[in-house]
Design goal:
It contains 15 helices and 14 strands. With 401 residues, it is α+β, with helices and mostly antiparallel strands. It folds into 4 domains: 99 residues, 2-Layer Sandwich (N Utilization Substance Protein A, Chain:P, domain 4); 68 residues, Nucleic acid-binding proteins (OB fold (Dihydrolipoamide Acetyltransferase, E2P), Beta Barrel); 70 residues, GMP Synthetase, Chain A, domain 3; 63 residues, DNA polymerase, domain 1, CATH 1.10.150.20. The strands form 4 sheets. A 5-stranded mixed β-barrel has the order 4-5-6-8-7. A 3-stranded antiparallel beta sheet has the order 1-2-3. It has a 3-stranded mixed beta sheet with strand order 9-10-11, sandwiched between helices. The longest helix has 30 residues. It is elongated, with a radius of gyration of 44 Å.
């Protein structure tokens, strides 16, 4: 058994990459626990087990005294076997973890294995199982058992049962990686993806830029008769893709990000990264998009807050503002010049009642009245009318001074 054990350990070192010393230490530790179960020793007595690296012979000691038991050989063999099996499993888990951890951020392929509480378990070519959580699936997308599936590898977690491989089809990077795989110019680095914004299952906006002036970034992505982008749309089961030309000119970039809508004017607040986008009335719904989708994705793409307004709405708002300011000014003037009729000399209660009945409520109305209009008021003749008008005007002159 001794020679066979060393041979097995050496084989594992070659085939599984587990160092022999690590295996020997694991066997010795496991045998210490096994010995404690078969012999009765005091807690303070140290149990030690050694495995000879040359001969493979196993010895157990309680303190300085060697333990000799009929069942020890059988237990040693059984324990060594269990340790080896355990280490093999751990090694296999490490191999899987290392392999897929190196692929994080890439697209992996597999087949749908089973469905579990809304999640999809994916067989990754027989090497491992990946999990596509419900939250990372494209809404309304459906798969059948055994169907081929591609997904973006988000992360690999170490778990007791083995590595947990988290996949996604809803991640914006999934679309980005599809473009890299499908478009040679992007793969080669001639065309760059500068930004991407996505609402999985409905719409994606992707901004591209070319390092070479001779290479059209948008044309490269679309392909002959849209063949290249069509392949990506097919993989995403019909998700709409807007390819936007990136520009360092933020005006041009914002206008392009809102395509296919046409923009009339853009006013920038660079300090707060906000932009007022003015469009014609017939372009408003197209600019905003279904449930605000177009402007929301455009805002994410350029990294600016976009406020969409029509020319008509702005003109109406401006007119309303001017009207409001004029009203406030008039109200202020009235408040500042609202002298009472009681302030006029020669105006008693009867005369005051007559003036109010004729529509002269305050001094302002009298100051702007004519002699003829005032003489029509009961009890006011030409001389008194002139006197009241001069007195009222005097109040305003004094107030201005």
């Amino acid at each position: 058994m001794n020679g066979e054990l060393l041979a097995v350990l050496e084989h594992m070192e070659r085939e599984k990459g587990i160092k022999k010393d690590v295996l020997i230490e694991a066997v010795e530790a496991a045998l210490v626990s096994a010995v404690k179960r078969i012999i009765d020793v005091k807690p303070e007595v140290e149990i030690k087990v050694t495995l000879d690296r040359q001969t493979g012979k196993i010895k157990a000691f309680a303190g300085e005294e060697e333990i000799k038991s009929e069942g020890f050989g059988r237990i040693a063999a059984s324990t060594a076997k269990q340790v080896i099996i355990q280490k093999i499993r751990e090694a296999e888990k490490d191999v899987v973890f290392n392999e897929f951890n190196a692929k994080v951020g890439e697209i992996v392929n597999g087949t749908v294995y089973r469905f579990e509480k809304g999640n999809i378990i994916v067989d990754l070519l027989g090497k491992a199982e990946g999990i596509l959580p419900k939250s990372e699936q494209i809404p309304l997308e459906q798969f059948r058992q055994g169907q081929r599936i591609s997904a973006y590898l988000c992360e690999v977690k170490r778990e007791v049962k083995g590595p947990q491989i988290i996949l996604s089809r809803a991640h914006p990077a999934f679309v980005k990686k599809l473009f890299i795989l499908e478009i040679p110019e992007i793969y080669e680095g001639v065309v760059e993806i500068r930004s991407i914004a996505r609402q999985a299952g409905e719409r994606t906006k992707i901004a591209v830029w070319s390092k070479d002036e001779k290479v059209d970034a948008m044309g490269s992505c679309v392909g002959m008769r849209g063949a290249r982008v069509k392949n990506i749309v097919t993989e995403l089961h019909g998700e709409r893709i807007d390819i936007v030309r990136y520009s360092d000119d933020i005006h041009a970039y914002i206008a392009a990000s809102l395509s296919p809508a046409e923009v009339s004017e853009i006013k920038l607040d660079k300090e707060n990264k906000k932009a007022l986008v003015i469009v014609n009335q017939d372009q408003l719904s197209l600019t905003i998009g279904k449930h605000g989708q177009n402007v929301r994705l455009a805002s994410k793409l350029v990294g600016w807050e976009l406020d969409i307004r029509t020319k008509e709405a702005l003109e109406e708002k401006e007119a309303s503002k001017e009207k409001e300011e004029a009203t406030k000014t008039n109200q202020t003037e009235v408040q500042e010049t609202d002298f009472s009729l009681d302030d006029l000399d020669g105006v008693g209660e009867k005369t005051k009642a007559s003036l109010i009945g004729a529509g002269f409520w305050d001094i302002q109305s009298i100051a702007s009245a004519s002699n003829e209009a005032l003489t029509k008021v009961k009890g006011i003749g030409k001389m008194k009318a002139k006197k009241l008008i001069d007195q009222a005007k005097g109040f305003f002159t004094q107030h201005k001074e």
